Amino acid sequence: MTSRIEFDSLGMGKHDLSLPFVQLADGTSLEIPVTVVAGAHAGPRVVVTAGVHGDEYEGVRAVADLCLELNPAEVRGVVVLVPCANPPAFAAGTRVSPLDGVNLNRVCPGDAHGTPSERLAHLLFEQVITGADALMDLHSGGTRYLFHPQAGFYRFPGDLGQRSFDMARTFGLDLLWEVPNRAGMCSYEAMRLGVPAFGTEIGGNGRCEREHVALAKVGVRNVLTHLGLTDGAVEPTPRPRVGRGDFTVCPAGGLFEPTVALNEAVRAGQVLYRVLSLRGEVRYEHRAAHAGLVSAIRIFGMIGEGEWDIAVLERVE
């Protein structure tokens, strides 16, 4: 059992910690890397996570950079940086853990006596997220999807929902996504515990483009300034578009043939993609349920039955 991190007792400085969550059969202990940047003066405790999915690299690189770049002398309060929340999946380059086939972002806040991923989620919440003043959870499209850079907020009632929206907007991207409430998601479960949270989706395609990493780093710094942990001005941002929607689940497997492009405006009823058999016949044709913006698209050349396809966000105020 790992003893609780006593954030208030950490002196000013940068503290590199390792939190063990499971022991393998050979005795090897798997650990979550955590860097705590503790300022000289009291202030909020803000958590930044990345690498919840092992094939998403933009957030991992951004948080790794921030582990080096954030100066404790310029911080009020505590910034808790988790550059890779799912080391087994990261090592395998997969969305789910190779240890149990579980999606970490569907089993939060976890189970101390569950599968390795459930134990990992429990440790992350017990040690890092519970009691924090805010959470930023950085994601991307991984190896099979590509996202237009966007920040996702939760429309919870009252101050909690407003703080989620304000942080997402302050992050500085030109698209905001009203994220569906989905049990087991890290940011949603944080909100259920009363921790203001939001997530981002920036890039994907199995890559780690410099401009996407830069967007993530500027965004995190914007929110830290917004929350009073650092001084300076929040970088000016465009008036964002706000959308509501999600991927749909494909009912057929085969070759995936999109007929639209990322960031394209589509009309209701427009064909978004087709699924072809290995002999070229059209097995399935998917049309847009509503007008909106293609905010994320599958870039993998095949699709399995029950897999996500294309996300179209309907504009909301």
Describe this structure in a few short sentences.
With 317 residues, the chain is of the alpha/beta class. The protein is built from six helices and 16 strands.
Describe the model.
The chain is of the alpha/beta class and 317 residues long. The chain has two domains: 7-241, Zn peptidases (Aminopeptidase, 3-Layer(aba) Sandwich); 245-315, OB fold (Dihydrolipoamide Acetyltransferase, E2P), CATH 2.40.50. It has helices at 58-69, 87-92, 116-129, 158-171, 186-192, 210-226, and strands at residues 13-23, 29-38, 41-50, 76-82, 134-139, 145-153, 175-178, 197-204, 241-244, 254-258, 265-266, 271-276, 282-287, 292-298, 302-303, 310-315. The mean pLDDT is 96.
CATH architecture of the largest domain, please? 3-Layer(aba) Sandwich
The main β sheet shows up as: 5 strands, mixed, barrel
Strand order of the largest sheet: 6-7-9-16-14
Portion of residues in helices? Answer: 10-25%
Q: How many separate domains?
A: 2
Task: Give the number of DSSP strands.
Answer: 16
Nearest-angstrom radius of gyration?
20 Å
- Compute the number of helices: 6
What series of H and E elements makes up the topology? EEEHEHHEEHEHEHEEEEEEEE
Overall structural class, as computed from helix and strand content, comes to alpha/beta
CATH class (first level) name of the largest domain: Alpha Beta
Please give the alpha-carbon distance between the first and last residues: 47 Å
- Strand proportion: 25-35%
| Low-confidence parts | none
Q: Mean pLDDT score, rounded?
A: 96
Question: By CATH's scheme, which homologous superfamily of the largest domain applies?
Answer: Zn peptidases
Which topology of the largest domain does CATH recognise? Aminopeptidase
